[in-house]
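Input (structure):
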């Protein structure tokens, strides 16, 4: 299982390869936040290549705007949390609703 930093590194490496000449890779909008701020945002473009949003798009209002257009039943995303406990891994899953996006 990948840690948050490893996931971020993997997406960055895949994006780097895509920007060098094209690497088809399908990923849903993946937004990485740290300390309450959007750090990076990866997505698959219409041409099928992995792309990364520019810094000017790394603000919560842009995230809300984009995800609201893709919303189904008010759900704009999902959160997966992985925690280790003794010899087990606990996986938690929850939906993110538009009206709660950006709230703690």
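Output (sequence):
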């Amino acid at each position: 299982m990948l840690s948050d930093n490893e996931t971020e590194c993997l997406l960055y490496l895949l994006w780097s390869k895509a920007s060098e000449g094209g690497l088809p890779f399908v990923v849903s909008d993946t937004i990485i936040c740290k300390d309450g701020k959007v750090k990076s945002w990866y997505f698959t473009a219409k041409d099928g290549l992995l792309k990364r949003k520019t810094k000017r798009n790394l603000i919560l209002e842009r995230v809300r705007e984009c995800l609201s257009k893709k919303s189904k039943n008010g759900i704009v995303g999902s959160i997966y949390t992985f925690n280790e406990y003794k010899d087990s891994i606990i996986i938690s899953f929850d939906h993110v609703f538009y009206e709660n996006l950006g709230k703690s």
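Notes: The chain has a mean pLDDT of 75. The longest strand covers residues 75-85.
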